[in-house]
Design goal:
Elements: E1 4-10, H1 12-15, H2 22-33, E2 37-44, H3 48-61, E3 64-68, H4 79-87, E4 91-93, H5 95-106, E5 122-124, E6 128-130, E7 139-144, E8 147-152, H6 156-175, E9 179-187, H7 192-198, E10 209-215, E11 218-227, H8 229-247, E12 251-254, H9 259-269, E13 274-278, H10 284-290, E14 299-304, H11 308-315, H12 319-325, H13 330-344, E15 348-354, E16 369-376, E17 379-386, H14 391-411
Parallel strand pairs: 1-2, 1-3, 3-8, 13-14, 13-15
Antiparallel strand pairs: 4-5, 6-7, 7-8, 9-11, 9-12, 10-11, 15-16, 16-17
Length: about 425
Amino acid sequence: MIRRAAILSTGDELVTGRIADTNAQWIADRLFEVGIEVVCVLVVGDFPDRLEWAWRQALERADLVISTGGIGPTADDLTTETVARVLGVGLALDEPSAAAMRQFFATRGVDPMPANNLKQAMVPCGAVVLPNRLGTAPGYRATYDGRHLVVLPGVPREMKPMFEGSVLPWLREQRGGEVYLARTFQTFGISESALDELVAGVVDPQAGRLSFRASFPEISVRLVVHGPPEEADARLAVLGERLHARLGEYCYGEGALTMEEATGRALREHGLTLALAESCTGGLIAHRVTNVPGSSAYFLGSIAAYANAAKQALLGVPADVLATHGAVSEATACAMALGARRAFDSTLALATTGIAGPTGGTPDKPVGTVCFALASADGVRSVTYRLWGTREWVKLLASQVALDMIRRYALGLPPHDPALFRRR
């Protein structure tokens, strides 16, 4: 039975820091779901001796080694040759893969196919080919001295469907009867320590396991149960609803749901439209809102009014408000929100103005000061937060607070306590 896995990520771009290894994190998360422990993650460059060393190290430590990258058509793609050498077998052309490659290029008007692409159809003798429906490089799996090897492309949009479609079902068969099932709840507006206290005692450790992951600016709570499929499924449903009820207003969604998706859902379900007026966030909130497909159903537009002159000309902020209260003030934020609601004729309008840093702060208005205002038919509500971190962190956290303010208003929930986001 497969109990322990090693993940091998290959590519010079990984070891030099040019790109982050998100594949390993994603695969580890999926392996956890089926109860397989990840004992190590190895990242290695495109050198034959280093690749062979990494494969041998991984095979010594795990029942399963999953590799991503290094199976492209170029000279520095060395994974398959290395695997064959470690297995002590030759390479053979997989004809169905070669035919699929030729068709892939022909449908794109490239005929004949570049000859070096046939390298991707060469697999170790005896390997089981895993089809790649979104690219040219097939994956494969093989066995070695009772251990299992899985080789996948490094491109995430190709690797993930292959893993979900071909690797996970096979792993579940290998694991046998019992399963690990999980539900993940996304939270915002409560600290990790307070969250831990809030859910204490909700889940008996014998029935399930809770874990927390702080992924700025939100915190996810994961519930995992283990057992025979039907029993585990029923237990997960009961415990999940109990946990969800305890999390209450702090839980904005489940699974991979983002705050912008949750906010958009609330706006759509309640028939509300949104406009934005952004200063310190510089359009980041609008960017996140429009990342959601179908956001045109509720999002009308945004004005990024950074300069005072733009605030006056585009949003109608009175000069005396700016002179008396300053650009970073709740009075200015209120005027901006009203101006945006008027300009777009929206149900709601949210405005931000603040000091993202690292310079520009004063004793009265330090770096991280952000004023928010939300205008609606009920009037304008405003609040000032003292955020913290780098310029990027302040902007991201401000956008998260803004989206959650909108979500909470749409759902009739109370606003946050601004003190929550101050540095501790």
